[in-house]
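Database export, one record per block. Field names are fixed; values are copied verbatim from the stored entry.
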Amino acid sequence: MHSFIEEFKAFAVKGNVIDLAVAVVIGAAFGKIVSSLVANIITPIIGLIMGGINFTNMSYMVGDAVISYGVFIQAVIDFVIVALVIFMVVKAINKAQEIGKEEEAPVEKAPDEPSEEVKILREIRDGLKRH
């Protein structure tokens, strides 16, 4: 039992687990931002474009059961919109990173001046060619 606890501590303290925890927290916060963007800005605009259609009210009665297929349709539409927004944000971030890398690209330096020995050997070679 003691080694299990030690292994768990080593696992939990590793950087990967901490990085993952931070990513989950930031991801949840980012998810709220994207959900708000979709619910409060993008979905109303799409509703205007589509003539104010609200799928959530669509349902079908089967006996006493209510099949709310409109809620499902709205959830699918919301998913597609959220996926599209996240795709565009990730694409913009990747583009910004590429631009940053291009600016940081190392400038090629001019080749080093040949040593004195190489210069002398070249002179000797050129002199031998003339004779």
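Remark 1: Residues 69-104 form the longest helix (36 residues).
Remark 2: The chain has four helices and two strands.
End of record.
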